[in-house]
Design a protein that fits this description.
Helix content: 25-40%
Largest sheet: 5 strands, mixed
Strand content: 15-25%
Shape: globular
Number of helices: 15
Order of helices and strands: EHHEHHEEHHHHEEHHEHHEEEHEEEHEH
Radius of gyration: 23 Å
Mean pLDDT: 93
Number of strands: 14
Structural class: alpha+beta
Strand order of the largest sheet: 10-11-12-13-14
């Protein structure tokens, strides 16, 4: 087993994630989007929209300015000229994945998650799943609230508890829970979204027929393919890293890794400073250096696994959305800043659409950043300006919080 340095492992990871690919010099096309998807394999979905929704940002981080409708069309508004490239399913979390991977991520491949708790609802309302499918077949794509209204007048669903008036987003009705269960196990698909609400449809109206009609993969075979995809996306990682990318089961991952090693499709390696053995994709490149800059949303695959981020970059990162504001260390929705292959700073961002500005509510340089503070501020100001333009905002405004705020504010003013 050969030994490699932590620096080589870091550069391998960055290259696998697409951060050594040059940004397009002209208009961004579906071909460029496909290149990003070939790298990252999936885009995590999240409802927080304080700056930009999570699935849009990893594409911007790698390609720069691009039309958001490029991704919307690929996921939710396909046409004969531009067929669907992406489908929603559960992967790392709720995600967009290439349609060809939809079958690999069926509920027989992934270990049961939250949806196992919804099974008692099907026993409580034996006909509810069928009633929901009937409404979706007739009216889809359709949201859960509209499904509930369709079911209520005729009483087809029996004593279904509606969503209480004034309920929070998390207080789902029984109809919504069963919709989510059926989506999780592949009996419903997401045809489109409106105001980020899932609109459910039948899988045969969403997933391409050649994919849907293909034989369901054996769970062990699917796990092996997914582990290999994870290795491709990471370049190098521990068994835990490989398992986490698609949230696979422990034993199935162990078996898949062993089989891939035996077949020569994973290379066991030791990384200096890593406590656990690692596995390298034999096709992964380790560039001599990594240059360029990027802002990363909290759900970018480069940083979504916090222990891995700390191990590779020495960057301790926690999302503080659920931390009371007085107790937050950095802010509500914090973007790490990648510069020349190192995470050198972080900024708490808000897209203030009413005022037409991208607000930096806090800016913090890492104490051991390899780049000098003035350069960090200049490069970060440039990337923030690019992001503001991409979001249709008129400029960047920097607040007073954080050790980098004064230098960043000066760099923004200097333009």
């Amino acid at each position: 087993m050969r030994t490699i340095s932590a620096d080589v492992a870091r550069r391998t990871f960055l290259a696998a994630q697409g951060f050594t690919d040059p940004r397009p010099s002209g208009p961004v096309t579906r071909r460029h989007l496909g290149r990003v998807l070939d790298r990252v394999k999936l885009l995590q979905l999240d409802s927080v929209n304080v700056a930009v929704r999570a699935h849009y940002m990893p594409v911007f981080s790698r390609l720069g300015t691009y039309p958001a409708e490029l991704l919307d069309d690929a996921a939710w508004s396909p046409s004969s000229r531009k067929p669907r490239l992406l489908a929603e399913t559960w992967a790392h979390e709720a995600s967009l994945v290439p349609v060809r991977d939809w079958l690999l991520l069926g509920h027989k491949t992934l270990p049961p998650r939250w949806w196992r708790h919804y099974r008692p609802l099907l026993e409580k309302h034996p006909s509810l799943a069928e009633d929901i499918r009937d409404v979706v077949a007739e009216h889809g794509p359709i949201g859960a609230g509209a499904i509930e209204k369709e079911l209520a007048p005729g009483g087809r669903a029996g004593t279904v508890r509606p969503r209480p008036p004034g309920a929070t987003w998390w207080e789902r009705s029984e109809v919504k829970r069963v919709c989510e269960y059926l989506f999780a196990v592949g009996e419903l698909a997401v045809g489109t979204r409106r105001h980020f609400e899932r609109r459910y449809d039948l899988p045969e109206r969403v997933i391409p027929h050649d994919v849907l009609r293909a034989p369901a993969p054996d769970p062990a075979d699917a796990a092996r393919v997914l582990v290999e995809k994870a290795a491709s996306a990471l370049g190098i990682g521990t068994a835990t890293d490989l398992r986490d990318y698609y949230r696979l089961g422990l034993e199935r991952t162990r078996t898949a890794i062993a089989e891939l090693v035996d077949a020569g499709r994973l290379e066991p390696v030791t990384v200096r400073g890593w406590a656990k053995p690692a596995y390298r994709d034999p096709a992964a490149a380790a560039p001599r250096q990594v240059t360029g800059r990027a802002l990363l949303c909290p759900f970018d695959p480069l940083v979504w696994e916090r222990e891995r981020t700390e191990r590779i970059f020495g960057f301790r990162y926690r999302i503080e959305i659920y931390v009371p504001e007085p107790k937050r260390e950095y802010g509500y929705y914090v973007f790490p800043f990648l510069l020349d292959g190192a995470l050198v700073a972080r900024v708490d961002l808000k897209a203030d659409r009413a005022a037409g500005v991208l607000r930096v509510r806090g800016a913090f340089a890492e104490p051991d950043a390899p780049a000098p503070e003035p350069r960090i501020a200049t490069e970060l100001a440039g990337e923030l300006a690019t992001m503001a333009g991409w979001l249709g905002l008129g400029g960047v405004e920097v607040g007073e919080r954080g050790n980098l705020a004064p230098a960043l504010a000066a760099a923004v003013r200097a333009g």
